[in-house]
């Protein structure tokens, strides 16, 4: 006897955070369509980003584009799954042709959390303290405030990084509050950082649903989960990042949101040591145009040389 074909098949990475996000999507989809959760399958994929946990590499160095999505993208395009569930900030701005980010869940908290077992905030760290992060954005933003900090590479999933702190590998780290919230680990945060000092990564805190371009059935299935303000904000932040993408070794922060009916976008780029930074801000109604405007403003301020300097 043939088993009934599932209503939809979700593809996800296997980290606890990715699984929590996939289960949230399954639950929301089941509710939206009045179905039992068992009618929606979850298939787990190991991506290059999961396999390459070498401590001395930053993500941009291990290949950047699609390192957390490639295997899921391929399964989606081949029709083995119907929906790729991703952390939006891990999705490359240049996606493979044939797929589209069709829906974004209501955004979680966008801010970064400061976590330490010894001190309350970044200002309280002793001179020369070890700051664990493999994110060039977080390193640059931390060094801007505290040039004395020593950056130590810090990879692995959220629980691995929390354990490394307990093991004394570093004195402090930063993690996205969104991920901590989804894993019920927000109590680990010793401070929540002001997004003006620590502008989040473009698209941080938003879950994206990828489907095949032109798949009308799936477009209708995921539509009820789409949160329009989040969709616009992520579109603007990703459009800004796309303008800057030639220089994938430049630390970039972005934050967009609605003020009234208008979309506001703030963007920032920094030198790796955090000692030089540029900011731009604009308002608009078209996310794509807004993102391009802010991205081009940043390039005009910084100069092509600034971007090229870090682009290897
Ligand atoms: N691959 C790292 C990653 N991708 C998405 C999140 C957090 C969740 C989110 O931004 O939605 C994290 C962990 C972190 O930065 O702390």
UniProtKB/TrEMBL annotation:
One of its GO terms (molecular function) is hydroxymethylbilane synthase activity. Residues 9-219 form the Porphobilinogen deaminase N-terminal domain. GO terms for biological process: protoporphyrinogen IX biosynthetic process. Transmembrane segments: none annotated. Binds 1 dipyrromethane group covalently. Its EC number is 2.5.1.61. Its cofactor is dipyrromethane. GO terms for cellular component: cytoplasm. Pathway: Porphyrin-containing compound metabolism; protoporphyrin-IX biosynthesis; coproporphyrinogen-III from 5-aminolevulinate: step 2/4. SUPFAM superfamilies: Periplasmic binding protein-like II (SSF53850), Porphobilinogen deaminase (hydroxymethylbilane synthase), C-terminal domain (SSF54782). Residues 234-299 form the Porphobilinogen deaminase C-terminal domain. Belongs to the HMBS family. NCBIfam families: hemC (TIGR00212). Tetrapolymerization of the monopyrrole PBG into the hydroxymethylbilane pre-uroporphyrinogen in several discrete steps. The porphobilinogen subunits are added to the dipyrromethane group. HAMAP family: Porphobil_deam. PANTHER family: PORPHOBILINOGEN DEAMINASE (PTHR11557). Monomer. This is Porphobilinogen deaminase. It comes from Devosia lucknowensis.
